[in-house]
Amino acid sequence: MPxxxxxxxxxxxxxxxxxxxxxxxxxxxxxxxxxxAYTSNVIIPSESFKLTKGTPKCYTNFGLSGKAHxxxxxxxxxxxxxxxxxxxxxxxxxxxxxLDGGAADIEISIERFIQNRNHYVAPVEGAVxxxxxx
Length: 134
What we know:
Number of helices: 1
Helix content: under 10%
Strand content: 35-45%
Oligomer: single chain
Largest sheet: 8 strands, mixed
Number of strands: 11
Distance between the termini: 29 Å
């Protein structure tokens, strides 16, 4: 069962099964939230996600859909852990960098918001290239 945690270990989680999708997101919200050029994500059904330690803090903004986009993070170390966008009802989007034991080295199936991709980031070979959340 895949497991993950924040940088300081105050928040831990696990999930069952295989991801529905693995994605890089180049949207400007993800760039700001991660402090990086993009986020790498593992998308799973919410019912297969379980917090096993700690309680994350939540910041909610609104996506292009106009719907709430709650971001969960560690209140101690600030690690971005997962999001549960209302527009993705029933799905949890785990930030792959929080996966433990080298599991963050995922094969990417899709890149989103490619029009916001920084010039120094090359497209992932074989991944679908999308301009939106389609």
